[in-house]
Amino acid sequence: MKGIFTQKALFKSLFFLVFFQSGIAQNITGKITDSKTGEIIPYANIQVNSSESIISNAEGYFTLAEKNSSDETLLIISYLGYVPLQISVADLKKVQNNIKLTQGIVELDDVDISNEKPDAAKIMAKVKENLNKNYKNTQAKKDLIFVRHSSSFNPKKFDFEIDKSTVLSAKALKKTNDELNTFTKLLIAHPPQQFTDYLCNYYTIDTKKEDKPTVLSKLEVLKATILKNENRSASLDDLEKKFTDIILHNLDTTKYYRVKSGLFGSHDTISLGNKKKGKEKKKQLNSSKAYLDNYIRRNNIIDAKRLNFINKPEMYDYSYEGATYSSENKFVYVISFKPRKSKAKYSGKIYVSEDDYAVLRTDYTLEEGEKEASFNMKLLLGVKFSVNQSKGTLIYKENPIGEGYCMQYASLETGQYFYFNRPIKFIELAKGEKDVVKFDLKIEGSSKDKNEFMNIKREETSKATIENFKEEDFKFINIKKYDPTIWKNYSAIEPLQEMKQFKEVN
Fold this sequence. Notes:
Elements (H helix, E strand, L loop, with lengths): L1 H24 L2 E7 L10 E4 L3 E4 L5 E4 L9 E5 L6 E4 H6 L3 E4 L18 H10 L1 H5 L5 E25 L4 H20 L3 E17 L2 E17 L7 H12 L8 E6 L2 E2 L4 E2 L11 H16 L9 H4 L4 E10 L5 E9 L6 E8 L5 E8 L6 E5 L5 E16 L6 E24 L5 E27 L2 H6 L8 E3 L17 H4 L6
Parallel strand pairs: 1-7, 10-22
Antiparallel strand pairs: 1-4, 2-3, 2-5, 5-6, 8-9, 8-21, 9-10, 11-12, 11-13, 11-20, 14-15, 15-16, 16-17, 17-19, 18-19, 19-20, 20-21
GO molecular function: carboxypeptidase activity
Keywords: Carboxypeptidase, Hydrolase, Protease, Signal
Organism: Flavobacterium agrisoli
């Protein structure tokens, strides 16, 4: 019997090993580097079997979905200024999944159309003139999109104490303050971090509502995950819930309250009772669609305020840096820019197609000392806030279902500083309003957000299809650590090391 058991155990072990190795073999992760320098090439385009497009991440890596990992799969890798490379997955394996791109024959500094350098300001004027022609896509479309949002909250000072409570006994008040103290110490010791991924079909068409132009959008989420530490708060919503649980659980849920901070009071009524179920309908869907609608609008090259270095060129100084060729063998101007007027805040580079003056790519960053937004009433109100970090990359590709271009990839990283030092009261709405809970909140620190958007595939659809599509809510899959297999059946952005190394802290 012992021998039989050993054979069975051996068979199972071998079966598991073979199966596991087979599964791993189907997960193909590649790295893209410069053939001469060995430097990584971030945000390179990888066309998969001429049907989907993905982008290498900021560290130069990309991963193929399991369905695209067979040896016969054909990849075309391209990047501005480099010779496009066509390679099969079988050949990719032979080079240990390391793709080396060769710089094009044309060097940036050596290319001039004539003896005189092109006028960068005139080129940008042409870009503005052709924005609607190049980027206004009015047709009904279905985009397969992958979105990643990461956020971190880093308080360096966090004091939160209840000074007065008419509903808590002295013992309960001490216990609640101890809980608050433990909670704030945990936040400082282990700053919260969260990664949200989702893959979706995003249906849009330009239309009119009450004779005003608008965009009709529908969202179908195919898969969504949240990676965060459940023992720590990671977002403002989480913080709000945590504070509510700690402070307000002793208040009467049948009564109503308003909030007052210093001289300022809220006219909004707060109830601690259970919300009606009807209001929760499609909660995740609605918030995710609002986020995606807003993100696309904020990256609209035609009129986004943050992109005024493209749509309001009179605000910037431009310099011609040279030229290169695109993967489609288009001649491309390389133009640098920096602020000229006070409302101009960014510097960076723009890559412009010579034949139609379309922006193919731009990399931009907030100028040192500039702020995208700020509010400073620290002395008077005890409040200060500023968006003091901001940088992004936008990449466009030719619209596969019509004329012009569409956004293929967008990355936006922002950093905020905050300071809040104010007393806050919860006041019961009853005869002769009375203070119920009064506490002091002092918090100072920073937060960071990174948003990434990748358009994998665009297909033509119809207005009727979009109007008749029935949206359904979805649930996020909560994960405690990075799992490389969770997206193996889908095209996605390869995570950075920061996300791969994330682990739960108790």
